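Today's session is about reading a structure prediction critically. Students often jump straight to the picture, but the first step is always the sequence itself: look for stretches that repeat, for charged clusters, for runs of hydrophobic residues. Only then move on to the predicted structure, which in these notes is written as discrete structure tokens rather than atom positions. Here is the chain we will use throughout the hour.
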Amino acid sequence: MSMYGLIYEASQVYVTGVNRNISAILRDPFLIVESLAQRDIAKVNIDNLPDNWTQTTNNGFTHIRDDLGNVRIRIDPPDSMTTYPHKHLYDVDGNALDVNGNIVSSKSPDAHIPLD
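Below is the predicted structure for this chain, in token form.
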């Protein structure tokens, strides 16, 4: 787990050193996105990014960076190898992920996730 892990204690959740009430997190899950687990990166809504995440688009390619500046999601148009619009997911270390958050080869079909 990354340095942004969650510690559950009674009815409180401590996120990156900030105490948050668990009922507030259940109402607004984006309170904890700065500590996304690999399996949760696929659930990020690109129309409602977490605080301090940025999105840039150039020539049809979109890069979404986390609060540390790491590319976590890349959205690509169709190309000669992947003939459909797709996205790539990355962990904080830049490893390609499949839709379930497992590390895969960046050339793997599992790393080319069709857009919903």
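Discussion point for the tutorial: Residues 36 and 106 are 20 Å apart (CA to CA).
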